Structures are given as C-alpha cells and as structure tokens.
C-alpha cells in the first residue's frame, strides 16, 4: 500500500517489541533500514532478515542517548546511503508502581535519559542532514500517560510528556524547512490473540507500525505537530 523504495529509514529501538514491527513494516514497503542496537548479538534473531544485506545497516554498540555515538550513526548512514529520509524514535522504557516520595532519583534519571534524552539526541543528530535535503520525516513514540498520568507513575509520565513538548517545538521550528515532525501515542502493546479476546487490553505492535508507516507517507504530508492516538478499544 505504501511505497518507501530508495528511502532511508532510521529506527531507534529497532530490536524492541514495537521497533521490530516498525522495521518489518518499512522493510516490506521497500525502505533501506538503519537499526542501531546497544549490545552485541541483540539484533541477530529479531532482525535476522536484514543482517548482512548491503541494502540495510545494523549498527552494534550504539547508545542512542550518547551524542557522539549518534553522530557516528548519522555519518555511517550518510556514507552508505547518502541521505536520511525518516527517523522513528521507538526507544523507551517503563518503571512505575511507587508513590512519588518513594520514587528514587535513579528511576527518574533512568526514565528521562531513556525516554526523553534519546529523542532529543537522535533528532539533534539527524536534523542537520534533513535540513540539507530540505525534507525529512520524524515520528516520536510516547504513550497515553503523556497526556493523563495515573497514580504511581509520575516519573514515567513526565518523561513521556517531555517527548510531546519536543515534538511540538520541533514541528514549529522546522515546518518551513520541509521536515515533518509528529508523535504517536500507543496504548499497551499486546498480541493479536489478546486483542481478539479483549479489544480493551491494548493494540498490537503491527497495528501501531501501520499508523507510523501511514504518517510517513505522502498521503499524510500535510500533518505537522500532531499527537496521534493509537489506543484501539482501550479508551
């Protein structure tokens, strides 16, 4: 349905649950994929179909919260493919369950580093290339908690809310530069069997990946600074 042939797509968190679904969706649409991963061997099983292909690039030892390492990723991507068309930020983590006075600073720092800093660092590394091209698409992944926090998830919700403010700011800054920036808010990611049994439980990674694919297509090129809900039957 969507054609991304000859487009270069970076997916941070591409070895994660949602990230793998996003990689597979863009792969099926013909894109060149770039997927950084932090630990040796992490990509072998989930992204085996891309390993060893000159059409794609799996980069080991990349910490997406480290500016120097993300600059390395951008340089190697440009060296291989000459351009960067799409950045999808799926990196993220979850910790909750404690009231604020029992939430540790380590938990706060962990969540802001992984959820918010990773988006900031990745976008900052990629945007200069997109400015040179006068075009590019960025999709950040947050969650419903970014809009409405529950009890005992203050640090997590705050870190996800930061992603929305970054998305809105970038959309305003680069709207005249050909760079489209939006965010998607999935509910809980569950299996297709779980959704079939109870649609209120969440959404599948594959269904969210299709929303992201559509948002990066020419059909949605007029959408800028949007916060797209992907809740399924949960809310």
What does this entry look like structurally?
This protein has 235 residues and is an alpha/beta fold. The chain has one domain: NAD(P)-binding Rossmann-like Domain (Rossmann fold, 3-Layer(aba) Sandwich), CATH 3.40.50. 40% of the residues lie in helices and 16% in strands. It is built from 6 helices and 7 strands; from the N terminus they run βαββαβαβαβααβ. Strands 3-2-1-4-5-6-7 form a 7-stranded parallel beta sheet, sandwiched between helices. Helix 1 packs across helix 6, helix 2 runs parallel beside helix 3 and helix 3 runs parallel beside helix 4. The longest helix is centred in the middle third of the chain and has 29 residues. It starts with 7 loop residues before the first strand and ends in a 5-residue tail after the last strand. The model has no long low-confidence stretch (mean pLDDT 93).
Secondary-structure map:
Elements: E1 8-12, H1 17-28, E2 32-37, E3 57-60, H2 67-81, E4 86-89, H3 105-133, E5 136-141, H4 154-174, E6 179-186, H5 192-197, H6 205-215, E7 227-230
Parallel strand pairs: 1-2, 1-4, 2-3, 4-5, 5-6, 6-7
């Amino acid at each position: 349905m969507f054609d991304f042939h000859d487009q270069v797509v970076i997916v941070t968190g591409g070895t994660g649950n949602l990230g793998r679904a996003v990689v597979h969706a863009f792969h099926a649409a013909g894109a060149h994929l770039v997927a950084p991963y932090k630990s040796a061997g992490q990509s072998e099983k989930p992204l085996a179909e891309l390993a060893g292909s000159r059409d794609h690039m799996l980069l080991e030892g990349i910490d997406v919260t480290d500016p120097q390492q993300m600059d390395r990723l951008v340089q190697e991507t440009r060296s291989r493919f000459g351009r960067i068309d799409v950045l999808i930020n799926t990196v993220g983590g979850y910790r909750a369950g404690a009231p604020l006075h029992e939430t540790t600073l380590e938990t706060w720092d962990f969540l802001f580093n992984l959820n918010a800093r990773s988006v900031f660092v990745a976008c900052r590394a990629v945007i200069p290339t997109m400015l040179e091209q006068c075009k590019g698409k960025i999709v950040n992944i947050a969650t419903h908690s970014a809009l409405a926090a529950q009890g005992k998830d203050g640090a997590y919700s705050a870190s996800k809310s930061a992603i929305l403010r970054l998305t809105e700011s970038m959309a305003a800054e680069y709207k005249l530069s050909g760079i489209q920036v939006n965010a998607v808010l999935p509910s809980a990611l569950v299996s297709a069997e779980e959704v079939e049994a109870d649609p209120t439980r969440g959404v599948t990674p594959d269904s969210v990946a299709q929303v992201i694919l559509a948002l990066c297509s020419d059909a949605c090129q007029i959408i800028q600074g949007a916060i797209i809900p992907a809740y399924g039957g949960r809310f």
